Task: structure prediction
Amino acid sequence: MSTFTMYSTPWCGYCHRLKGQLEREGIAFDVVDIEQHPEAVEIVEKANNGNQTVPTLLYADGSTQTNPSLKQVKDKLAELAG
Result:
């Protein structure tokens, strides 16, 4: 079961790095390529003041993080777990 959605592009180095870190930690997440799913661009732009900045993570509570560190993601997941 995924814990959040990562919006990314295939050419984004920051996306590849974060994906690898999350996978090594065993953290489940969904990935949406904004180039393949143009409707997702709106979500990314809304989270980033009109910019298409990736990776953008969208959590179940509706909050987002842009280009977070692994620690920031883990802290957010711990917060959501309560």
User: Anything to note?
Assistant: Helices lie at 13-25, 39-47, 70-81. The radius of gyration is 12 Å. Residues 13-25 form the longest helix (13 residues). The first strand starts at residue 4 and ends at 8.
